[in-house]
Amino acid sequence: MRMRKKKHRDARFQARADLCFEPAEFADKFKPPVFLEIGCGKGGFICELAQGHPNANFVAVEKNLDVMVLAMEKAAELGLTNVRFLSADAKNLAEHFAPAIVGGIYLNFSDPWHKRYQASKRLTYKTFLEIYKSILIPEAKLVMKTDNQNLFSFSVKSLAENGFEILSQTRDLYGEGISDGNVQTEYEKKFVAEGVAICRLEAVMK
Ligand code: SAH
């Protein structure tokens, strides 16, 4: 059963291979700066953002190929030409992006890794922040959303301690009525429907 699924997934991935991110392509039509979503899941957020900003270029990074294929198919259905996909773990981002090439990073509903000994896996742990700093343009923003209040607290502290300035933060994006223009992710739609408060922050390198 597992083999069948993988074979099917690989064929679907190959069918959309033109949407894979290739750094060499930068010389051509897909120019930096690029905006990254790390952990794009099914791709609803990055596709809607790309649709709304046809002159900007986006890269969706996702370590789970099964789910990334769904995001690629969504982008293809929409005929988007300004989104590419990178099947990679965030810990290897510096292998794919040159310094100061990224115009912004979105972290949406990242895995909370709630146990203390799992802290180093959180996408706002200091080792990840060092990687982001190495590829971000100085004035670029890191924007994070989560339903997880503990991950949010951890992230605010980790960012402040590791070279970022928090420009804005809320622990209830919808309750405060400041969600205008907000692009929802798949997870976000589910949480909002359940009445769960959404945390959001924007940070920039100091
Ligand atoms: N952003 C989407 C999905 C959130 S679930 C949404 O809001 O709907 C978190 C996603 O991040 C999962 O798809 C998971 O595979 C991916 N992810 C977790 N850790 C990652 C890492 N280190 N590198 C790349 N992707 C990661």
Short key terms for the protein model shown above:
206 residues, alpha/beta, Rossmann fold, 7 strands
Task: Draw up the topology in text.
Elements: H1 2-15, E1 34-38, H2 44-52, E2 57-62, H3 65-77, E3 83-87, E4 102-108, H4 126-135, E5 136-146, H5 149-161, E6 164-170, H6 186-193, E7 199-205
Parallel strand pairs: 1-2, 1-4, 2-3, 4-5
Antiparallel strand pairs: 5-7, 6-7
Helix pairs in contact: 1-3
Question: What's the gist of this structure?
Answer:
This protein has 206 residues and is of the alpha/beta class. The protein contains six helices and seven strands, in the order αβαβαββαβαβαβ.
Give your account of this protein's structure.
The chain has 206 residues and is α/β, with parallel strands linked by helices. It has one domain: Vaccinia Virus protein VP39 (Rossmann fold, 3-Layer(aba) Sandwich), CATH 3.40.50. It is 33% helix and 23% strand. It is built from six helices and seven strands, in the order αβαβαββαβαβαβ. Strands 3-2-1-4-5-7-6 form a seven-stranded mixed sheet, with helices on both faces. Helix 2 links the parallel strand 1 and strand 2 (57-62). Helix 1 packs parallel to helix 3 (65-77). The longest helix is centred in the first third of the chain and has 14 residues, at 2-15. The termini are far apart. S-adenosyl-L-homocysteine (SAH) binds next to strand 2 and helix 6.
* Mass-distribution shape: globular
Distance between the termini: 50 Å
Measured by DSSP, the beta-strand proportion falls in 15-25%
Determine the CATH topology: Rossmann fold
Order of helices and strands: HEHEHEEHEHEHE
* Alpha plus pi helix count: 6
Poorly predicted regions: none
Molecules bound to protein: S-adenosyl-L-homocysteine
Largest sheet: 7 strands, mixed
The tally of domains stands at 1
- Average predicted confidence as pLDDT: 95
Spatial strand arrangement across the major sheet:
3-2-1-4-5-7-6
- The CATH architecture: 3-Layer(aba) Sandwich
Question: Which secondary-structure class do the elements indicate?
Answer: alpha/beta
Helix content bin: 25-40%
